[in-house]
């Protein structure tokens, strides 16, 4: 079985016309998995609804604790892209777990979004990679500690 942890981020953002702002809404993973015909057994654990720029070290510790305590050995985490690489580094060294973080540069609820593609990449990666922590973005899987977000180019890249 796969554990899906959600922490918020752009992937789950919704636009509210009344306030003209984005807010983090309900996790979109169940909808994407259902629409994509995913038959793999999985469990959803929503931890936060935060923009990743609001994440603190205590939040990263809570994510780590959830990963350590989970009976599942394979964990997919949806996360905001701005600090995803920091969280991935904070999760390194958890024995017996394959952890893949992913997110989106545009909300999953938008017609044009990278969310569905990134979730598919992460789902394949978490099932096939060895123990460790990885990021799955822009069609590439990166080991934790070896990736950064290039905000100007709007993509992730190796460092």
Structural description of this entry:
The protein has 159 residues and is of the alpha/beta class. It has one domain (2-158): L-asparaginase, N-terminal domain (Rossmann fold). The protein is 26% helix and 33% strand. The protein is built from four helices and ten strands. The chain has helices at residues 29-35, 57-69, 84-91, 115-128, and strands at residues 2-8, 13-16, 21-24, 42-50, 74-78, 98-102, 132-137, 140-143, 147-150, 155-158. The strands form three sheets. Strands 4-1-5-6-7-8 form a six-stranded mixed beta sheet, sandwiched between helices. Strand 6 (98-102), helix 4 and strand 7 form a beta-alpha-beta unit.
């Amino acid at each position: 079985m796969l554990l899906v942890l959600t922490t918020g981020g752009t992937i789950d953002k919704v636009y509210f016309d009344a306030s003209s702002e984005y807010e983090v809404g309900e996790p979109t993973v169940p909808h994407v998995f259902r629409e994509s015909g995913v038959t793999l057994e999985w469990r959803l654990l929503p931890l936060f609804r935060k923009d990743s720029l609001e994440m603190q070290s205590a939040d990263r510790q809570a994510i780590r604790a959830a990963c350590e305590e989970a009976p599942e050995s394979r964990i997919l985490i949806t996360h905001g892209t701005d600090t995803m690489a920091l969280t991935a580094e904070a999760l390194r060294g958890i024995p017996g777990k394959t952890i893949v973080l992913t997110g989106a540069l545009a909300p999953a609820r938008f017609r044009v979004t990278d969310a569905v593609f990134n979730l598919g990449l992460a789902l394949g990666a978490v099932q096939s990679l060895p123990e460790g922590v990885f990021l799955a973005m822009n069609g590439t899987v990166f080991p934790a500690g070896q990736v950064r977000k290039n905000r100007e180019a709007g993509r992730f890249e190796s460092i």
